[in-house]
Amino acid sequence: MKNIVLIGFMGTGKTSTGRLLAGRLNRPFIDVDKKIEQETGLAISDIFQLYGEDHFRQIEREVISRVARYTNTVIATGGGVVLKQENIVRLKNTGVIISLMASLEIILERTARPGIRPLLDCEDRAERVAKLFQDRASLYMKADYTIDTSCMSPQQVTERIIVFLREGGHLRGRS
After folding, report:
1. Whole-number Å distance between alpha carbons of 152 and 64
2. Could you read off the pLDDT tens digit of each residue along the chain, which spans 175 residues?
3. Assign residue 67 a region: left if phi > 0, alpha if psi is -120 to 50, beta otherwise?
4. Of 48, 63, 98, 130, which has the fewest Cβ atoms less than 10 A away?
C-alpha cells in the first residue's frame, strides 16, 4: 500500500491531521521533524541555531530518503520539505501527496508561540510568513490533492482525505 504524505506550510495541521489519519486507517505515523529530533538528539530550533538551515535541510533530505521507502505509512513532513525537489520525487514514488493549505491570517494565528519555529523567530513575523508562503506556494500545489484547512478541524480534514483516497482508489475498503 502507498504511503500518505502530508505536505504544507507551518501551521496547516500536518501533524495533528497525520496522527488522526493514521489512527483511522490503522497505519503507522511518522512526523519527519520529530524523527529528526529523535535521531539528532536536538530540537529543530537548536539545529537551526547551532548549524544553520542548510545543515538542517541536509539532515531532512537524509531522513526523507529513508522514510520514503516505508509502505502503508502516514508521513507528515516539515514545511520546507518542498524546497528540495528530490524530496518530493522520492515521496511521490511511494506515496500519494496531500497538501494542506491555510490563509496567512490563520497561519500567523496557529504559529504565534515563540521559540518553536526557528524560521519565524524574527522581528516582523507577518512579513516573514508572507515571504516564505509566497516562495513555497507553487511547490505545495504540485500535490495530488490540496485541502484548505483554514476553517476546518483536524477531524474534518481527516474525513476529506479519506473520501479523496477512497474515490481515487488509494484505499481499499478501509476507514
Report:
1. 28
2. 799 999 999 889 999 999 999 999 999 999 999 999 999 999 998 998 899 999 999 999 999 999 999 999 999 999 999 999 999 999 999 999 999 999 988 988 887 766 555 555 657 767 888 888 899 999 999 999 999 999 999 999 999 999 999 998 676 543 3
3. alpha
4. 130
Write the single-letter amino acid at 127.
E
Integer angstrom CA distances of residue 164 from 3, 52, 68, 123: 14, 38, 21, 40
How many Cα atoms occupy the beta-carbon half-sphere of 146 within 13 Å? 13
SS3 145: strand
d(CA 141, CA 51): 30
15 Cα distance to chain centroid: 7
Alpha-carbon gap, residue 160 to 47, rounded angstroms: 34
pTM higher than the cut 0.85:
yes
15 closest CA partner among 42, 41, 34, 36: 34
